[in-house]
Design goal:
223 residues; mainly beta; hypothetical protein yedk fold; five-stranded antiparallel β-sheet; five-stranded mixed beta barrel; 4 helices; 9% helix
């Protein structure tokens, strides 16, 4: 799964990293983005604009928005089957922008799991494959939400966790963001583990366990 991630860039840094996307408004570097918080996405609405959606997908038919708390991730293998995701998979796809994510590894003989930060060898930002939804309540309130798609782990992640987020190569962004309806057979080839040779992982402080802690020290390698 993917339960926490980072994007340690301000607006200018994000605009420089993604020159094809429109970046506006204030953007604060984040080191411990958690579920239910606003996350930076580029939805396939044809605008190529960075927006902020709530992390935790709320299907349009949901009666209670709290269902999103359980929908922070979507398994790539069953997107086309699950009622919560199949419509969004066809019509509402997005990029979730990031420069790293956390996973927790079980260590033999230790009760507590060890957190690790995973990022690109280049330290450049990248994007998860995501889905998004627009939810309206009976009282007229409106929530835009998203989920991160996961797949089987690559060789780097396999010792740490049995799932990893789907990371899209930059040359695949346009295909994923196509606003036209696309079937599973057209997009399935994108939902694969990212090459382990281009990534690295290292242990970090257990301070990341607390979602209220959000500081640059969280991504510093642990001693």
């Amino acid at each position: 799964m993917c339960g926490r991630f980072t994007l340690a860039l301000d607006r200018d840094g994000l605009a420089a990293a993604y020159p094809d996307f429109v970046v506006t408004g204030e953007i604060i570097p984040r080191y411990n983005i958690a579920p239910t918080q606003p996350v930076p996405v580029v939805p396939n609405n044809g605008q190529n604009r960075v927006e902020f959606f709530t992390w935790g997908l709320i299907p349009s038919w949901a009666k209670d928005p709290k269902i999103g708390n359980r929908m922070i991730n979507a398994r790539s293998e069953t997107l086309h089957e699950k009622p919560s995701f199949r419509a969004a998979y066809k019509r509402r796809r997005c990029l979730v922008l990031t420069d790293g994510f956390y996973e927790w590894q079980k260590v033999p003989g230790q009760k507590a799991k060890v957190p690790a930060h995973i990022r690109m060898n280049s330290d450049e930002p990248f994007a998860f494959a995501g889905l998004w939804e627009s939810w309206h309540s009976a009282d007229g309130s409106h929530i835009l939400s998203c989920t991160i798609i996961t797949t089987t782990p690559n060789e780097l992640l396999e010792p740490i966790h049995n799932r990893m987020p789907v990371i899209l190569a930059r040359e695949d962004y346009d295909e994923w963001l196509d606003p036209e309806e696309r079937g599973p057979e057209a997009l399935g080839h994108l939902l694969k583990p990212y090459p382990a040779s281009e990534m690295r992982a290292y242990p970090v402080s257990t301070a990341v366990n607390n979602p209220r802690v959000d500081a640059p020290e969280l991504i510093v390698p642990a001693n």
